[in-house]
Amino acid sequence: MDAATRVHEGFLERVRSGGLPDLPEAQIDRDTLLTLWRAQLISRHMDRAGRWLQSRGQGFYTIGSSGHEGMAGVALALSVEDPAFLHYRDGAFQAARALQAGHDPIMDFALSFAASSEDPISGGRHKVLGSRALNIPPQTSTIASHLPKAVGSAFALGLNKRQGRAENRLAFCSFGDASMNHSTALGALNTAGWTAWQGAPLPLMFVCEDNGIGISVKSPEGWVEAVLRGRPGLSYAQADGCDVVAAYEAAQRMAGEIRRGRRPGLLHLTCVRLYGHAGADVEKAYRPEAEILAEEARDPLLFTARRLLHAGLEERDIVQSYEDVEGQCFSAAESAATRPRLTSAADVKAALLPPKRTLPKSNTPTPEDRKAAFGPADMRALGERQPMNKLINLGLSDLMLEHPEIVMAGEDVGKKGGVYGITRGLQARFGAMRVMDTLLDEQSILGLAIGLGQQGYLPIPEIQFLAYLHNAEDQIRGEAATLPFFSKGQYANPMVLRIAGLGYQKGFGGHFHNDNSLAVLRDVPGIVIGCPSDGADAVRMYREAVRLAREEARVVVMVEPIALYPMRDLLEDGDGLWMRDYPEAGETAPLSEPRRLGDGTDLAIVTYGNGTYLSEQARHDLEASGVSARVVDLRWLAPLNEEAILREIEGCGAVLVVDECRRTGSQSEALMTLLSEQSALPRARVTAEDCFIATGPAYAATLPSREGIVEAARALLG
């Protein structure tokens, strides 16, 4: 007898024999109790139906919610309007919220479990909990990755309130006791407390569903409470999650406190885990049978059955309702198995990008507004040639003036103006609620951006150095980029992520501050990657990046070459040839369109970022020796416009790819593949070595150089 069958038959036997737990009286009306009961039954029987589908080869992912049905009480204690970021065992929460909204969720669950393309949330791409109508963004199973964006959403709701908008919602987030130990969860709990400690409104309710075990590893006795209780900035309460009424009452009290005080709280619910972890997991392999049976004796449905008896239902009525919902769930599962599924790559990819949005046109700032925001010094700077760092600063100011929904956030971006001064003066111009200094936690910075984006803001977060992105890359890959895919474009995380990066910083930092690898970004489907090479083009690209985020809800990553921030000269000291004028209003760099520098026909040098600067130096050296060359600055590294690249090299005798990233995993691999497949031109590449970057005098020893590009070009041309 499998675990699901044993628990099922054990429940029926206990109800018929009167073997139910004794519980104290509770003040809950009968209708609410019956709604909770139905939600719990839907969750339980859909777990069983999912396993049945899997046994027939018609279901594909069976991690279940059995034992966590007390979460139905938490759902009814909240509003359907509260955004909810759910633990993967929260089927009862979603079922209760659906019933609260007047919708029966059985068929929705069944379509998801059967991976049908008619599944209303993911369209058959994953078995996820989620619903646009219920304000539940779908979650994948990356451990605790949803906690940072829940903090971000709560911050957005608090920001709404501070800006005078009518707002009484809270953000809800649940997670398991094993997930609590993940650095992502601990970072999010810390960020919530850190934010509330400073008095910022953060209406956020965490629930830890503590079933005492993570897959096969037990949580040490008392550990979860010790970690959660007394966290600075977070209120704490406990309840028995096996008793749905106790969970409902505790959640009601905490939600009321959070709405009144706009401060975060944490509810610790004790639960049990029934049926094992997921799929074919056999608990007897790592848990003694007595322990498993003791857990089954605390089945949440037994607790609710006792409540129903107190409310006047007969045992036969309880059993009948149990069997009625069982029939409905299995019937829906059988029907869902016959419904259409995704069949082609085109079907699957159709949800990769969110749909374009129709937005009201933003008001172009008046000359008076601009003058007031910029001040005399920057107004003069707008009319003079400037290096990249100053032009990006001016360009961001213009964008914030034009789009009031833009919010910037990152470590040191406020008062200090960033490590390299790129955001200097912006907090003074636009206020601390639009240019925010964050704590030192990249996961929380990106989570804040995701949450802000989901609540209607346009976040421009900053990661201080490219190497620091590795601490938080799953917030891009596992959350921001995948959300449109798993929600059929119903949810998106528009943002423009700024990252200072790449190499060539003279004698500073080594590989922690000179990171010349973009591989972690290049293979994430759907995101846009830009890398400007001079200040004017950076402004044009940021205008396009903001348009992409606003109108197309895209995730745009802008990698700014640190070494080019202050660059003024190109060929010799004092020539000022790498400074640029501020672009006129309306000038942009359209997505995936490269630009050409020079019109030589002997050689095309395809490159980006610092490579563009070095290649321009090399182009002048080559022309002095009679070789005519052009530089094709890619600007946008993803998505690559292959047709445009081929068009820009047309008419040349050879192609040299110059890539400042490492030979393995760099853009040069894709470019050389393109040239081998689509062009007969002789070709070669110059890349960085497969090595980290050293500090001190050897800072550029492993990187492409002006001289190396010239040498490679001459060798290629014979």
- Separation of the first and last Cα atoms: 76 Å
Summed up, the helix count is 25
Mean pLDDT, to the nearest integer, reads 93
> How does CATH name the architecture of the largest domain?
3-Layer(aba) Sandwich
Largest sheet: 7 strands, mixed
CATH topology of the largest domain: Rossmann fold
Radius of gyration: 29 Å
CATH homolog superfamily of the largest domain: Thiamin diphosphate (ThDP)-binding fold, Pyr/PP domains
Number of β-strand runs: 19
Strand order of the largest sheet: 9-8-10-11-13-12-17
**Spans with pLDDT under 50 lasting ≥5 residues?**
none
Indicate the structural class.
Answer: alpha/beta
Helix content: 40-55%
User: How many domain modules?
Assistant: 3
Strand content: 5-15%
CATH class of the largest domain: Alpha Beta
Describe what this molecule looks like in 3D.
By secondary structure, this protein is an alpha/beta fold. 41% of the residues lie in helices and 13% in strands. The strands form four sheets. The chain has a seven-stranded mixed β-sheet. Strands 1-2-3-7-6 form a five-stranded parallel β-sheet, with helices on both faces. A five-stranded mixed β-sheet has the order 14-16-15-18-19, with helices on both faces. Helix 16 links the parallel strand 8 (406-410) and strand 9 (435-437). The N and C termini lie far apart (76 Å). The model has no long low-confidence stretch (mean pLDDT 93).
